[in-house]
Amino acid sequence: MKEKALDRRSFLKVGSLVGGGLLLNFSWLSAKAVKNEVTGQNEFLEFNAFVKITPDNVIQIMSPNPEGGQNVKTSMPMIVADELDADWSQVVVQQADLDTKHYTRQFIGGSQAIRQGWTVLRTAGATARQMLKEAAAQKWQVPVSEVTTEKGMLMHSKSGKKATYGEMATAASALPVLQDVKLKDRSDFHIIGTPVKNVEGKNIVTGKPLFGIDTIKEGMKIAMIVHPPAFGLKLKSYDVASVKKLKGIIDVFDIKVFNEDYERTFFDTTTFNEVVAIVGEDTWSVMKAKKALKVSWEPFESHSYNRNMFGRKSSVTVPAGLESTSESMAQMTGLVSKPANVKRQDGDVEKAFENASKIVEAKYSAPFLAHNCMEPMNFFADVREDKIEMIGPLQKPELTEQALSARLGVPLEKIDFKMTRLGGGYGRRSYAHWAIEAALISQKVKAPVKLVYSREDDMTAGVYRSTYYAKYQAALDSNNNLIGFKVNMGGNPESPIHENRFPAGAVSNYLAEDWEIPSNITTGSFRAPRSNFNAAAEQSFLDEVAEAAGKDPIDFRLDLLEKAKSNPVGQRNDYDADRFAGVLKLLKEKTKSSQLKYPGVSAYFCHNTYAAMVVDMEIQDGSPVVNKVICAMDCGLIINPDGAKNLAEGGIVDALGNALFGKLTFNNGATDQQNFDQYRMIRMNEAPKAIEVYFVENDFEPTGMGEPTFPPVFAAVANSLYRATGKRFYHQPFMSQLS
Amino acid sequence: MAKYNLKINGKTREVDVDAGTPILWVLRDHLNLVGTKYGCGIAQCGACTIHLNGIAMRSCMLPVSSVGNQEITTIEGLSENADHPVQEAWLEHDVAQCGYCQGGQIMTAAALLKNNPNPSDEDIEATMSGNICRCGTYLRIKEAIKTAAAK
Asked: What's the pLDDT tens digit per position in A113-129?
């Protein structure tokens, strides 16, 4: 009997399998009623980890993942609500806390929330709906097959009986959880595929405290950090007396983010492992103390730390030295002309180049980039003996919780992570060293603490996008067929190569090589990691090759994709040639009627989504003017068309800004840019006058929209600028190349 | 430290702070009005925009001692119930992505429309280019301002 009682509340857990498959499994939870926060009278009855319904018919859907502007807090619950057959107007969405027992993959990254959440979210909704139908059938003494649902109502047409979900919630939530529930036919979706407004819209426009930096708690202190002014330096000494006497200052001390013996996982990147913390009563007092603090720094020696990547252990060496962009550029320029690690080789590429009638060659580069989330890094921590409360914006809460557990020597059960809305992430908030810093500071001062980075801290102590360099070479035969293709690329410190992506598979003789330069500058994921440079360089180059071949840029790509489809070279080609061609064909159709002056074409596939676009821009009085961007996407089924469109527009504007202006440079280990007066961000007057977004209609399962629109923009900009100015733009940011 | 009686969102609020404290931190740390955001601290991004006697101002570089009797309006005080035409237009166009900058954008836009009820595209761009949106929602912001202007 006891076991059966446990059966009553089950919820679904989805885990991703290697290779992108989905594993559905059930885990179990004892019955629990949650007080209704909406009415204050009725209790929420829990159907599973995603669905709760009150007897007075309020339907609460939990949104499992952190929300950082990708709109998952709307789109993920939409999927649950549709399968539940709920009336969206009665749905209340609630952000879930980090809860590894009930949810998996509660993180932002890789544009995977919708793709990997799709089946579990549907199943959660469908299971709850079926339980409601069972309860109604039992109450009405009719076969369950005769019970239907529509917009939050249960119906039996023969008898004319009707009930709201709320009326059946008590009985339904007490039933054993059903397995193998049938999901809806797509033709029955009534929420998925319709434009649904952001569930947080009203809170955003009225300035409600949604963000981590807005956290205020009883007795809370404010903390800031002072970090070395350059990569390659470490803390030597600091003068506590110089600031401790200042008004509003409580304490000054140094903290160490990770201990020497700690095995760091992928996201345990910390910019500076030892920093000075200043704690005070309010932000302004701490900011003043930060300026007043006397600190000495010294160069560090080359050293190493341990890494453990899901069981693969290694030692990572951090080189000594104060790096400068001019030196690393010179180093990279040299490396692209030397043989490097061969990542993929098809046919006989040297012979193809010997037999070529035309050879095209070009070199491309991109600088370091800072993420510049509008909400600077911050976190709230309250570390007590019995419990640790952590509140804030981060992309990988589960991994951060594990790191914190290891750092403090406290079991995971004692740590609670609450996820606030992220004022932007773009990869930066995957590396939550500041959450650990906040916890260490709270532990030391024995008080709840909100750690806030200044904009300067945020920009000068970042986990940046690497800087990259590439050389591309193409061989054309006398009929202008592409017979050979070579790419040699690398980065400081990360290689951006994706050797199995287009045009691999479409060229008989192909060589991809890469290299890396070690650095002590911390780098990590940045919106569409590696793809953002790959696409920029490769799609600019293909434009130049198409021109040399005397072909239209879209047709040139379509011809290559036709070859990749009908007679693919190699086995590991990382794209579906048909779907890739599909977005180019849609783009061609949509641009046909547009009067474009300087169309620059680009297309890329990454994060399971295909994107093709045309940028039409020119330079007027030395300033870029973007007249129009037309974008064609294939992300399978669209959950929220207007949300998807918004995300595409944002990705395009963001990429345009980075392509034209974005750069972070180093001089003796220190960034030349400290704030927005030195780091140029795109502004409204530089945004496109118009953006058109079109989606390929098909029956594929939905894939993500957060990243895929970003990479192709760079080359579309370069290719349009070429048509507008007669000059090829090889080195980002392009505006630096204009003079 | 000194005491200041500030007129904020139609009420008088007393604070005891350092004379140089920017209004941004007075609002956020001392009055729990966190809708006004910290973005850069040097008046470059516009996330901290408030109205001072109806004029859009960057609060991050505005010392509390310089405000005196002037009326401060924050995003929390722009309307009673999210029904300012600019807020309504923002919801109609579903402008926000991460949403962090939008309070500042709305305050700048509301001040623009007060002075210039029918702004041209150029007027909108000139005024709004002081506010950064890292998510890139500029096209929707522009459309929302036009919608609000038409009301």
From this structure: 999 999 999 999 999 99
The count of residues in chain A is 739
With CB atoms and an 8 Å threshold, state whether A205 touches B82: yes
A202, A205, A216, A647, best to mutate vs chain B, most B CBs in 10 Å: A205
The boundaries of every CATH 3.30.365.10 domain in chain A are 2-205, 217-305+371-460, 327-369+464-737
Residue B29 clears pLDDT 80, i.e. is over it:
yes
Fold of A2-205: Aldehyde Oxidoreductase; domain 4 (3.30.365)
* Rounded Cα gap, residues A429 and A425, in angstroms: 5
The mean predicted confidence, pLDDT, of chain A is 93
Q: Is the pLDDT of residue A356 over 50?
A: yes
Domains of chain B: 2-77 (3.10.20.30), 85-150 (1.10.150.120)
- Rounded to 5°, angle at Cα A310 from A304 and A314: 25
What ipTM does the predicted assembly reach? 0.99
Nearest CB neighbour to B87, from listed A69, A70, A205: A205
CATH topology assigned to domain A217-305+371-460: Aldehyde Oxidoreductase; domain 4 (3.30.365)
Does A685 sit within 8 Å of B99, measured CB to CB?
no
> Tokens 């704030």 sit at which residue?
A675
State whether B135 and A283 contact (CB < 8 Å): no
CA distance A732 to A366: 5
Mean pLDDT value across residues A191-209: 97
Residue B23 forms contact with A (CB below 8 Å): no
Dump pLDDT digits (tens) for A33-58: 333 344 444 689 999 999 999 999 99
Contact criterion met (CB < 8 Å) for A646 and B75: no
How far off is chain A from B113, nearest CA to CA, in Å? 17
Better pLDDT: A42 or A623: A623
Identity of the amino acid at A517: I
CATH topology of domain A327-369+464-737: Aldehyde Oxidoreductase; domain 4 (3.30.365)
Residues 6+ apart with CB under 8 A from A623: A686
Q: At A358, which helix (H) or strand (E)?
A: strand A358-366
